Amino acid sequence: MGRCWILALMLLHVVSSKAQYWGEVGGEGRASRTQGVWIGGGASSFGFSGSSGSSGFSGSSGSPSSRVSAAYTALQAWKSAITDDPFGILRSWVGPEVCSYKGVFCTDVPESMSPGVVVSAIDLNHANLKGSLVKELSFLSDLSVFHINSNRFSGTIPDSFRVLEKLSELDLSNNQLSGPFPSVTLLLPSLIYLDIRFNRFSGSLPEDLFNRNLDAIFLNDNLFDGQIPQSLGNSPASVINFANNRFVGNIPTSFGYMGPRIKEILFLNNNLTGCIPEGLGLLSEIELLDVSFNSLSGHLPDTMSCLTEIEVLNLAHNKFTGVIPNVVCSLKNLLNLTLAYNFFSGFSQECGSYKNSGFDFTGNCIPGSYMQRPPPECITTPVNINCLRIPSAGPVSCGSVDVLERKAVGKRTGKPYRAKTP
């Protein structure tokens, strides 16, 4: 699913065509794939009118009419918990015809079942509503999409959400929600898109987060701390964002075993230390990697030469040392390379010849180069002996890296590794 997500990096220091590609904040306007057609939503401009969506009707209890009645109860309970509605959206939330409510979308029940409609999506992005989430929202048993980004909801996510078996997209970003990581989200069997960025969640991440079948995980701009779980390597996600939190410790060594599905991962602006794992080279399909504004150190691994699809690589504002190797500068798809404000002591021959406007080497210790650190700062270059690497005598064989990758994928999936035949 990698490129189907409409993502938002909202990271102004990464200026690249890649960031522009992913679009606007919050994934708004996304629609799931469905057998029906969205209807309802009133006259609202907030949402899915005319889009296709995924309803997944099997397993819902009760007739469509009884489920719409339950939806009325849920939405009225939620309305009573909303204390400010500056755009007057909730003025349409009157009477039992819930499919006419602004921001509420319904789908037809297939003809093989009792005729009628059910509530399949809520999209109240950018409504600026103030209030809280109520336990009665669990009555929306056919809900597959719940988007409420850019509001002022506070409090926690009710435990009753665990019964929303069809929920595939949950976007709670840019609110004022708080408390520990909402573990109830890990009990949603159909969930593939989880966006809780720009809130006030805190504490450590549960190990099981990266064992779930999530394709997009946005955790950035919260108050999370502790170490990133070693289970990271189990994640099938194509996009993960850890940025702007308080994570400490090393990038998990399992990072390299995420396999080819990971396309973008951001660790920037945390308190991470240690080295970049050698297994980074296993991520042969990754397109964006940002570890800037941490305290990572040591030499860059030679396996970076296997990152043939990478377009944006940001290692700025860390404590990396050594010579910037050819294998980094010569990556064929690289558009934006930022190595600024480290302690690199020189270029390899190929890096020194690059005049690419998307490459930034300022603030290092490279003699004769523009805008470098003052010499006294370079005398006290930080050294992490655990991260020192002796450069390879020849180029890294990405074929051998590919063998390791396929073995790692086989270990996760239970399918035995088989060598490729010529």
Report on this structure.
This protein is an alpha/beta fold and 422 residues long. The protein has six helices and 26 strands. The strands form three sheets. It has a 13-stranded mixed beta sheet, with helices on one face. The chain has an eleven-stranded mixed beta sheet with strand order 4-7-9-11-13-15-17-19-21-23-25. A hairpin with an 8-residue loop joins β5 (104-108) and β6. The longest helix has 17 residues, at 64-80.
Residues in helix, %:
10-25%
Strand order of the largest sheet: 2-5-6-8-10-12-14-16-18-20-22-24-26
* Number of separate strands: 26
What composes the largest sheet? 13 strands, mixed
Radius of gyration: 24 Å
Contiguous low-pLDDT stretches (5 residues minimum) are 1-39, 43-60, 405-413, 415-422
Q: Overall pLDDT, averaged?
A: 81
Euclidean distance between termini CA atoms: 30 Å
**Count of individual helical segments:** 6
β-strand percent reads: 15-25%
Structural class: alpha/beta
Task: Characterize the overall form.
Answer: elongated
Q: In summary, what is this structure?
A:
It is found in: Secreted, Cell wall. With 422 residues, the protein is α/β, with parallel strands linked by helices.
Short descriptors:
422 residues, 13-stranded mixed beta sheet, 26 strands, 12% helix, disordered N terminus, disordered C terminus
